[in-house]
């Protein structure tokens, strides 16, 4: 294999694909990127990485393919060399399993591995499209739910985000047992009902891979795997193909968690509530990390206190509070997390009792349920 690469494009591609590479593994080839050079139109270089759970194939078009071939090179070394060189282009050439990287005045010989040992990573050429979704919509749905997913929870099924499609309506749901985030949007080409649980790692990368927010992203679900195609199949420079194993298990019956009836309701500007919660949170600590929220007819009072630190009181004027007064405590970080992903605008807070979950909504496309905390 011999290719002449635009260095800046190579650095960007290596940074993106390198995010999948396993940092700790007994299998050395999994610490590598597989490079595949092809002269077939459209010619280019495809970089592939996998940790056996998530895989990514990313095309680079800014490449002159002198000789087709494959190579498996340690991702960290390729990244370090590409970033350290100041040349406009780099030449990458293989000699058996060794990889030579040359700039105008530099030469690196890196010992790689047999590319045939690299695990196969799916592309999108032999799969059936389940649906297509606008890039901006996909980013919004993932961003509004992923933050609430569990991290290494013993209930394995909540260590990811539920994708539930019914016709052209797609709903994403995530929970860590203390809060639940649900966002909805539209797809095209969907038929029937499909659902799966996608790992958080894959979705974090999917958000970054949306290069054109107005483009459609193809999605396919097959057996225990999901695939996303960003662009036109496997064409270098025009696409990335992300594949991931699905999270096993049954997602909790989330519809039972969302309260159906609330007799207390109030609307805020997201920035107004966010500023007040952040201020009240300044005097909380690990032992007393709750903020007391006292809702009355004309005002909301937020209070917090931490031993040996002090107390805080913040008030917000209310114009449309509906219901009887109520005092309830919430983890301020959980409220701020939700406000950070809804892009401002009006929000509605719905409550029942001090020991019942609260619900934060923005229109009909985002619902956030959070459990109260006990306040002494």
Give the distance, in angstroms, between the N- and C-terminal Cα atoms.
68 Å
**Count, helices:** 6
Structural class, by secondary structure, is alpha+beta
CATH top level label of the largest domain: Alpha Beta
Helix content: 10-25%
Q: Averaged pLDDT, please?
A: 92
Number of strands: 25
What kind of oligomer do you see? single chain
Draw up the topology in text.
Layout: E1 2-6, H1 7-18, E2 32-38, E3 44-50, E4 54-60, E5 63-67, E6 69-74, H2 75-84, E7 89-95, E8 98-102, E9 107-111, E10 131-134, H3 135-146, E11 160-166, E12 169-175, E13 179-186, E14 193-199, H4 200-209, E15 216-222, E16 225-231, E17 239-245, E18 264-269, H5 270-281, E19 291-295, E20 299-306, E21 310-317, E22 326-330, H6 332-339, E23 346-351, E24 358-362, E25 366-370
Antiparallel strand pairs: 1-5, 1-7, 2-3, 2-6, 3-4, 4-17, 7-8, 8-9, 10-15, 11-12, 11-14, 12-13, 13-25, 15-16, 16-17, 18-23, 19-20, 19-22, 20-21, 23-24, 24-25
Question: Could you characterize what this model shows?
Answer:
This protein is α+β, with helices and mostly antiparallel strands. It folds into three domains: 2-117, DNA Polymerase III, subunit A, domain 2 (DNA Polymerase III, Chain A, domain 2); 131-255, DNA Polymerase III, subunit A, domain 2 (DNA Polymerase III, Chain A, domain 2, Roll), CATH 3.10.150; 259-370, Roll (DNA Polymerase III, Chain A, domain 2). Helices cover 17% and strands 41% of the residues. It is built from six helices and 25 strands. The chain has helices spanning 7-18, 75-84, 135-146, 200-209, 270-281, 332-339; strands at 2-6, 32-38, 44-50, 54-60, 63-67, 69-74, 89-95, 98-102, 107-111, 131-134, 160-166, 169-175, 179-186, 193-199, 216-222, 225-231, 239-245, 264-269, 291-295, 299-306, 310-317, 326-330, 346-351, 358-362, 366-370. The strands form four sheets. Strands 6-2-3-4-17-16-15-10 form an eight-stranded antiparallel β-sheet. An eight-stranded antiparallel β-sheet has the order 14-11-12-13-25-24-23-18. The chain has a five-stranded antiparallel β-sheet with strand order 5-1-7-8-9. A hairpin with a 4-residue loop joins strand 8 and strand 9 (107-111). Helix 3 (135-146) packs antiparallel against helix 4 and helix 5 (270-281) runs antiparallel to helix 6 (332-339). The chain is elongated, with a radius of gyration of 25 Å. The protein starts with a strand and ends in a 6-residue tail after the last strand. The mean pLDDT is 92.
């Amino acid at each position: 294999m011999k290719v002449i690469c635009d260095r800046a494009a190579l650095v960007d591609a290596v940074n993106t694909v390198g995010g999948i590479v396993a940092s700790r593994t007994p299998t050395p080839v999994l610490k590598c990127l597989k490079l595949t050079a092809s002269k077939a139109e459209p010619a280019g270089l495809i970089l592939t990485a996998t940790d056996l759970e998530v895989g990514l194939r990313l095309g680079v078009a800014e490449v002159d393919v002198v000789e087709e071939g494959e190579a498996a090179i340690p991702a960290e070394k390729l990244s370090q060399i590409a970033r350290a060189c100041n040349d406009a282009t780099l030449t990458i050439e293989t000699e058996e399993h060794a990889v030579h990287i040359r700039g105008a005045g530099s030469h690196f010989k890196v010992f790689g591995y047999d590319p045939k040992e690299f695990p196969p990573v799916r592309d999108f050429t032999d799969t059936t499209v389940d649906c297509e979704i606008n890039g901006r919509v996909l980013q919004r749905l993932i961003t509004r739910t992923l933050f609430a997913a569990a991290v290494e929870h013993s209930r394995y099924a909540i260590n990811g985000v539920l994708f539930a499609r019914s016709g052209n309506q797609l709903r994403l749901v995530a929970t860590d047992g203390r809060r639940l985030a649900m966002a909805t949007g539209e797809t095209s080409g969907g038929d029937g009902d499909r659902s799966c649980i996608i790992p958080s790692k894959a979705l974090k990368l999917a958000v970054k891979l949306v290069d054109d927010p107005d483009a459609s992203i193809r999605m396919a679900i097959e057996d225990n795997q999901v695939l996303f195609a960003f662009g036109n199949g496997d064409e270098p420079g025009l696409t990335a193909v992300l594949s991931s194993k699905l999270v096993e298990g049954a997602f909790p019956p989330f519809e039972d968690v969302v309260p159906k009836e609330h007799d207390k309701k109030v609307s805020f500007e997201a920035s107004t509530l966010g500023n007040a919660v952040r201020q009240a949170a300044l005097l909380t600590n690990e032992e007393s990390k709750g903020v007391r929220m006292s809702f009355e007819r004309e005002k909301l009072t937020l209070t917090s206190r931490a031993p040996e630190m002090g107390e805080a009181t913040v008030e917000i004027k209310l114009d449309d509070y509906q219901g009887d007064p109520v005092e309830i405590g919430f983890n301020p970080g959980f409220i701020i997390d939700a406000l950070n992903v809804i892009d401002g605008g009006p929000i509605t807070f719905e409550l029942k009792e001090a020991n019942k979950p609260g619900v934060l909504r923005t229109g009909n496309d985002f619902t956030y349920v959070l459990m109260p905390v006990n306040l002494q």
